[in-house]
Amino acid sequence: MKFKSQTEPSEFIDALLDQLSWMYAVALPTHVVAAFHPFRSWYVWRNNQKMEKLLRPKIQERFAMKNLSSAKTVLEHIEPDSSNPKQLEAVSGHLKTMMAIGYDTTSSTMTYIFYCLSKNPTALRKVRLELDEVLGTDLTKAANTIRESPKVLNEMPWVSAIIKETLRLYTPGGTVRQGISGFDLVDAAGRLFPTEGCYVSDNPGVYHRDPQLWPRANEFLPERWLVAPGDELFPPAGAFRPFVAGPRNCIGQEFVQEELKIFLALTAREFDVKACYDEWDQMHGISPDKFTDFMGDRGYQILGSCHLDSPRERLPCRITVR
Length: 322
Hints:
Layout: H1 11-27, H2 32-35, H3 40-64, H4 87-101, H5 104-119, H6 121-135, H7 142-148, H8 157-169, E1 175-178, E2 184-186, E3 192-194, E4 199-202, H9 204-207, H10 253-267, E5 271-275, H11 277-283, E6 301-302, E7 310-311, E8 317-321
Antiparallel strand pairs: 1-4, 2-3, 5-8, 6-7
Helix pairs in contact: 1-3, 3-4, 5-8, 5-10, 6-8
């Protein structure tokens, strides 16, 4: 399904982005007015209708073309069930979920990958060398190589390490659970905190930077994902949770990680990205002595509109072709 949203208007993408802004309005305390907007429910309903109108014909078309022997997409692997009237609704719902989670979180992580690499030239050099070895030095052939042999994405340990370390430092989101009677949280002092009547929010951004779990926790060290068990930097079991864990973990995590591998494989050798916060501050009259850093990091994550986890100022930068 091609939306061509980068070159022409897309009704589906417009509806999706507007839907995200109304959904996030409920979650963000800074958007109280939008959360209680009298027409919020109508806007959500309207956006959903627009997306359904465009998605369902495509789903039915794929069902009709079903051929398991040459299936390449999720839709082609689904067995149509004419006796189940809710199947179309369920498939459409899952596709919208995949597209929604793949928009904001993925774009934010892509931005942070280049932000981290721009500050760590050694890591950037290593990933470029790895891509030369795996995909060849002809950049024009990289996309076809991946398309013809997707398994090469599993032969890029440095690419995977950079993605994981970026997700650790700049986790794109968390999760919220409804508290229940009898489920209490316990702090280090042994005090109980009942969850009944509360929302319990998981914040991986906190324990991903916990020095008790991660040596040199605030440093960008992709090599921690390449060392052997027993090494000081080796990630502790259960401490890395960018997609949460358990039965309610992110259903799109495999898709997102493959998407990020392809993104990095096709761009890291072609472009140089340099963060320009000093230039930005000068243009906007921001004083150097104003508090603008978080733990020495100018590009820390912020909340805003439907961009839940964007870099501060959306990462002003200059991009040059190598």
